[in-house]
Amino acid sequence: MTEWTPLDPALAKVLPTGEPVNVSRRGFLGAASASALVLGFGLPVGAARAQAAGAAPAVVPGTRVPAFLAINPDGTIRLQSPFAEGGQGVWTAMAQIVGEELDADPATFVVENAPTGPDYQVINGKMRITGGSMSVRSSYDTMRRLGASARAMLIQAAAQRLSVPASALSTQPGRVVHQASGRSLSYAELAPHALDLPAPTTPPTLKDPKDFRWIGKPQARLDVRAKSTGKAQFAIDSKVDGMLHAAVQHAPRLGLAVGKIRNEAAVKAMKGVHSVHVLDGAVAVVAPRFWHARRAVEAAQVDWVEPTGASYRPMPATFSTADHAAHLATVQGTEEVAETAGDVAKAFADAGAKGTLSATYHSQYLNHAQLEPPSALARFNADGTLDMWFPNQAPDMFLAEVAKVSGLPPEKIRIHSPLLGGFFGRHFLYPKGNPYPQAIELAKRVNAPVKLIWTREEEFLRDPLRPMAAVRFRGAVDANGMPLAIEAVSATEGPREGIADKRSGEIDPTALEGLAGKSYALPNKRIAQIFVKSPTTVAYWRSVGNSMNDFFYEAFLDELADKGGQDPYAVRLHLLSGNARLTTLLKAVVDLSGGWKRGPFTAPDGTTRARGMAMASPFGTQTAAIAEVSIADGQVKVHDVWQAIDPGSIVNPAIITAQVNSAVALGLSQALIEEAAYKNGERVARNFDGYPILTPDRMPRVHVRIVESGEKMGGIGEPGLPAVPPAVANAVSRLRGQRVRTLPIGTLS
After folding, report:
1. pTM of this prediction?
2. How remote is the C-alpha of 197 from its chain's centroid?
3. Beta strands at 375-380 and 450-453: parallel, antiparallel or unpaired
4. What is the pLDDT of residues 157-175, one digit of tens each?
5. What CATH number has the domain spanning 9-228?
């Protein structure tokens, strides 16, 4: 049972009790029905009416239930989610958690993205983002308490209606029941009567996990029906009265400016064109229809000129990804150490030349390539306010930036956050990587609402990329052939420092996660970074640094096993000796795959195959994967991927299985074929015809085993990816007899 955590004493003057109180029906959920049950958490009792009158008491994030929950007369339960739904299933998980303690079927929930505001900054009480696989694990206790408080209020209302003690009542899904008399009342009936009752003065009692009805069990996704029937609304579907459309043509290299539109008069005369605009590093056309805007802006003949002053990360005209990869492999510089243990120098000396190994590994730039291209709709209103609709993973962060761009105070701005057509880290704040500043500027100029869509070609020009890295490894084995030491020096720029466009004085943890912090008990290790600024803009990408660093480490570990004449499975078991959790997990994936057989071996269909394995520990979750591959006509075929995943504890196993399948698909796509390439400072590919992604015919069978260790809850959305590329690479290396040290693997000779 989860314990009640008291409030910080420093907040006592603002929140005298830290316990739930009721808030009037005119409280936070103004759009909810007047007879909805609305509960407040952590407000002084006297503040309920003050809030109704417009006062704004201090907020402890994640504690005021009226900001989150309403029970409507039709029995549906409206939940304002602090986390965005983009296909990962978080809305369903939120409904399961709240519904469990409220004793309400999650299927009766209607979940929406919450508006901006401090109530929803539930990550460490300071932040609201949907990313880092933090949503469920960071809000689990908060959402449970929210549901339990609502249930207590409903029981209190029923006790008055039925003239019985609250202790004589219990609940069944959606109803309060008096077992002795057989009477019961629905939550919808009770909601109006619960509104004006005092809230419980003691912390809500939470269920014992053994009594869970919905948590830990498969639950149908709440968003599937709307998506399947075309009723789901994404940012790209947003529309308002009087709206104009806009399309842009970006400079081929970031930093270039518009010198002249040679055929501007002809563009203005094209069908449907409302106006033509010069923006920072782009030309835009506004029209009543998007097709007309797009056709016109693509016809614009623009002379691009070099910037005359400072600009954000201008792209050099000479840049190529091939040259940059070579530079990263050999660049010298300060090696900033992130992790060290033992005496690496002595270990290499003791191992001697025969027991040491050196290798350099490479990763590629990657696009996010999410299904929905970026868009933004801006509407300035007659009352001086601004409404904006756009895909985002952090509405409060965007609110602050929209205020800067628009010149309006935050209280005059409303950020609407529709469903996301894909995540992958694309919808964070990226300088020059989001369309909302352009939409704001165009709406100001034309004095009308403007909806701007970046076509895929324009997105590929401005999509900030997953960083590229080269890692120089040295390894040593002992007299028994077991790994004795590993040194890894990564030449790269991490996404956090890249987005900020400056170094903080400390190593960016996102640059080295998956290299540093590995759980193997190596007696000697040294992990370091040589900071090399990327000529491209960079970004978070699904599983962030783990997406490339676990490939580096796990592939080199196999290489080191070969150096010592050891089997990779035996090496991992040896290095995990004493780590019961990871030993159990590794054995679980081997059992799931039918037993470890590295190969090469002949499959029943006559193909020659091999298997590779890898492990990863991203975002508080542990994973182990095995991949089985064959090669035909130079193309790698991945037949099966087995993955065991231990997130500590779970909410919905069906969502976990779906997320692992999704992560396997993206992990394979980047391992086999994806690469964002540049020549002469310009993108080689501007759409999926030149930037292929994994097709359904190349998707393997995926087998998932969930292992609940009972450890602290970890994430789900990203952890299934990092172990996949190295498992595939290790299998391919075994099959070819030649190490794979660079991604994507591509076509093999």
Report:
1. 0.91
2. 40
3. antiparallel
4. 999 999 999 999 999 999 9
5. 3.30.365.10
